[in-house]
Input
Amino acid sequence: MHNKSVAHLRENPDGSWEAHDLQAHLMHVAEKAARFADEFGNGDWVIFRAFPLC
Output
């Protein structure tokens, strides 16, 4: 059995399901938030706060 944290599932056109890995999802969200925060000069702060131990 493979234990993997999942952010959400998506149903494909063929009826199969595709999982979005939680870590990849969180990184994508943090990167998107950082782009918005860059307007205020704080993009690097967002990434640091989202993943302080990485």
Notes: The radius of gyration is 15 Å.
